[in-house]
Design a protein that fits this description.
Distance between the termini: 59 Å
Mean pLDDT: 88
Largest sheet: 3 strands, antiparallel
Number of strands: 7
Strand content: 5-15%
Structural class: alpha+beta
Number of helices: 11
Radius of gyration: 22 Å
Shape: globular
């Protein structure tokens, strides 16, 4: 199974170019939602192609998406959650640095006794979604019992295997917890970091396309010419284009 160096997943406050935003937007738009985490790995140079990225654990893809989101929005992302108890809308600042620190990349496989348990990959999820029983298919793909044995042979081992499988699968997720100021209930919400990244990239790409169209129309440049401008010149020319009579 392909491996990815953990230090290459950590955000480093690197600038995100407009060209890179458009490229990622195109890639995410052309990829089915269950495989978009794998697409992020390709976009960040962590996998050579989508096929290889689909064999990388979901936890690694999710952390890459977190790092990309951190590069785009900074240390805090403002989100909105709905309290399940009173349905109040809650403004929740998501501290991406803290989430990144908590999203440790777990081993791709763990042995529980003689049983091998590995974290699910995008390929596993896609196969499970096409199966009559997705949960059973995912378990069968990610848990390898020795020949001639199974979960019915050792109940205690089966419980430990199930707990390990759940932990490895859960490593791909993130969550936030807070108290609802309206009703006081404790709210725990899962965070789909790939969807958050997709939404943010889509917004950024649409804004960029509008700006590029303004510059192309004002000065007769091509999209390539506009995207080759430095950020400072891009903004300066955009100001000129918007103030031209």
């Amino acid at each position: 199974m392909p491996s990815v160096a953990a230090d290459r997943l950590v955000s480093a406050d690197r600038p995100v170019t407009r060209a890179a935003t458009l490229a990622l937007w195109e890639l995410l738009s052309a990829t089915a939602p269950p495989a978009r985490g794998a697409a992020v790995l390709v976009a960040r140079g962590l996998a050579p192609d989508l096929g290889a990225a689909c064999d990388v654990p979901l936890a690694v893809a999710a952390r890459a998406a977190l790092a990309d989101l951190r590069d785009r929005v900074g240390p805090v992302l403002d989100t909105v959650l709905t309290c399940p108890a009173c349905e109040a809308l809650l403004d929740v600042p998501l501290p991406l640095d803290d989430v990144l620190a908590d999203a440790d990349v777990t081993p791709s496989a763990v042995r529980v006794g003689a049983v091998e348990v590995r974290g699910p990959t995008t390929a596993d999820v896609l196969a499970a979604l096409d199966a009559p029983d997705p949960a059973a298919t995912l378990r069968r793909r990610c848990v390898s019992w020795p020949a001639g044995t199974g979960p019915d042979d050792d109940a205690d081992l089966a419980v430990r295997v199930a707990a390990t499988a759940e932990r490895l699968a859960g490593a791909a997720g993130a969550s936030v917890r807070l108290g609802c100021p309206e009703c006081g209930e404790d709210v725990l919400a899962d965070v789909d970091v790939v969807r958050l990244l997709t939404d943010r990239v889509t917004d950024q790409a649409r804004a960029t396309l509008a700006e590029v169209a303004t510059l192309c129309g004002a000065f007769g440049w091509s999209e390539h010419d506009v995207l080759e401008l430095s950020p400072a010149r891009f903004d300066a020319y955009l100001d000129l284009a918007r103030t031209r009579v």
